[in-house]
Amino acid sequence: MPSISATVTTPDGACPVTLHTPNGTGPWSAVVMYPDAGGVRPTFQEMAARLAGFGHAVLLPDVYYRDGDWEPFDMQTVFGDPEQRKRLMTMVGSITPDMIASDATAFFDFLASRPEVKGDAFGVCGYCMGGRTSVIVAGRVPDRVAAAGSFHGGGLVTDDASSPHLLADQMKATVYVAGAENDASFTPEQAETLDKALTAAGVTHTVEFYPAAHGFAVPDNPPYDEDAAERHWIALQQLFGSALPN
Residue 25 half-sphere exposure, CB side, CA atoms within 13 Å? Predict the structure, then answer.
């Protein structure tokens, strides 16, 4: 699938992005794909291209742009290496909900300015950390999000005042959440809390678990599960096909 590299200006600086599009002339509905804690890397470029093949313009942002020219992580070894794990978790923790919302607004403005893109409401999807990000964006920038997909996302329900589930009454998007089994970062009890919050807010949604481990949808993660990953692609295709402009 065709792609271009660009830079999106945000309140905090310049964020490198790639924009992946289907073959043809467009314009197409647009989606922002948020990576997992490992950040943008070749496997996410491939995933963005595959999503573009479903008929969407897909923006893949470097969510760690505030860290400058950061050293990539090896997802096969990062969690077993104390120094690399600490570096990764420090970068994850540096991104606040306010940053997420301001970045998303800049990404949507960029997409709205592109000739490849149609419509003024967008899709978001994400994995692990990016799954949480997608839910936050749906609640913090609700007028611009028509559909949000979260896959093996953690921290969707916490005791903190900034917990994503507390944003349910702000959301206008169709929301799809797929958790991983036996994942301490998103438990059945938390799923029930999230489901109840979305139901009470009248949000069209699905919250379910896949029989796979955390990280199941991302090919370079050790817990990658091909069956679960294919199920996630089907879910994304249905979500964006029904909720985004045709």
Answer: 0
